[in-house]
Amino acid sequence: MSRGVKTGIVLDHRGLLSLSDIPITQLRDFFRRLVQKRRDSVTRASRVQSPVGCLAFFENSTRTLTSFEKAGLDLGLRWIHFDPSLSSLSKGESLEESFKSLAELDPSFFVVRHSEPGFAHWVQHWTQKPVFNAGDGRHQHPTQALGDAWTLWKQDLKSGSVAFFGDVENSRVARSSGFLFKKLGYRVSVVNDGRPQTLLFSKAMGFRLLARDKLPSQKIVFVLRAQKERGGHSALGPLLKKELGRGSYWMHAGPVIENEDVEWALCRFEDENSLVRQQVRACYEVRYRLLADLFEGSR
After folding, report:
1. Starting from the edge strand earliest in sequence, which strands make up the sheet with 131-136, in order?
2. Core vs surface per residue 12-43: b (16+ CB within 10 A) or e
3. Cβ atoms of 42 and 51 closer than 8 Å
């Protein structure tokens, strides 16, 4: 680990690879500190000595990539951008050798997205640096899950029912956010699309299977994009506005595909029953706080 890096209350020396080992008391403490809106800079006084993070995204991203980058810049960090398409991987270099070479440049930490489940753990093993898992295939998306939960807490929705709607089988968001919602005490369900894969997913995760006509009874409907890049699709079609109950909300980690994920009438994201815009802001706040925790006291 680079000099000056310390552990945070949610983080350990590995960064944030998974949500499974985080005690519920630490999660609640993390959200309490987010409420305080602390804006402590890392090392603004010295750009030369400020920490350097490495962004290594092997899959496309808008929200996760830019919010991590902005959070770091707002804290005074600098960034190395590793672009796989411009790297020596095209010449036959292995992923292990690529990351070991990057580690020799001594970045303070990595932010990694890859299609292979567990890839962030390999990067931490190869580099011995803290790693933030920004999505590994259909497996995990820890910072998105924290942002989704923080979205609900900011709206004072700290309990209630959450139903996942769409391609749950291929969704890392459903796995991570659903796991975290359940851990925080929400009643989590999956909308039944009649497919055996959906039934197996609900059983494996310990979520209830919900009939579609029961959607109006749910406080939160979390819509999922069909993961076409992983061979996924949604057998449900788009969520319809009439399927939301009075006082219900809908969420989506983005990008929202109009008339595939939700019908056109729901694509006004500023409407009071949409939390899509709030999720973007909440994920930035979570990533800012995680980076600040990693470098707190580094001066």
Report:
1. 15-16, 131-136, 109-114, 52-57, 78-82
2. eebbbbbbeebeeeebeebbebbeeeeeeebb
3. yes
pLDDT value of residue 26: 87
Model pLDDT, residue 177: 98
CATH number for the domain harbouring residue 255? 3.40.50.1370
| pLDDT for position 12 | 58
Rounded distance, CA 65 to CA 134, Å? Answer: 8
Phi, psi dihedrals of residue 262, rounded to the nearest 5°:
-140, 155
How many separate domains does the chain show?
2
The Cα–Cα gap between 1 and 157 comes to: 38
- The burial class, CB within 10 Å (0-12 / 13-18 / 19+), for 154 is middle
Q: Which residues of the chain have pLDDT under 50?
A: 1-9, 41-48, 297-299
